[in-house]
From TrEMBL:
The organism's taxonomic lineage, starting at the top: Eukaryota, Metazoa, Chordata, Craniata, Vertebrata
GO biological-process terms attached to the record: immune response
Membrane spanning residue stretches: none
InterPro entries, alphabetized: Chemokine_b/g/d (IPR039809), Chemokine_IL8-like_dom (IPR001811), Interleukin_8-like_sf (IPR036048)
Keywords: Cytokine, Secreted, Signal
GO cellular component: extracellular space
Domain Chemokine interleukin-8-like residues, every copy: 29-87
Domain of life of the organism encoding this protein: Eukaryota
Descriptive protein name: Chemokine interleukin-8-like domain-containing protein
Single GO molecular function: chemokine activity
Predominant localisation class: secreted
CDD domains in the cross-refs: Chemokine_CC (cd00272)
Amino acid sequence: MMASHLPLSVLVLLLVAVTFSEGLRGFGPKNCCYHFNEKPIASQRVVSYVKTPQQCAIPAVRLRTVMGRYMCARSSASWVKNLINELDAKIIPGMTNQL
């Protein structure tokens, strides 16, 4: 009788462990910024950017550098706005303007 309950007990224990570990991850977006680079970065060092989701507590921009690293910057900073405008103005080789 005890042997028939063992697989069920193991399954329940496994489900509890998975549920607990998933709960620790949280429910919010995964790409929010909590630490910010306050010093301006040269536009030659940045290849792209991504705005953080609106669900994040602080509006920010994740900047991807030439080295493949990501840095967070406040989207309200004037140097960040200038950098975004400069990146948006770059023409991608091989792409044509469809306007």
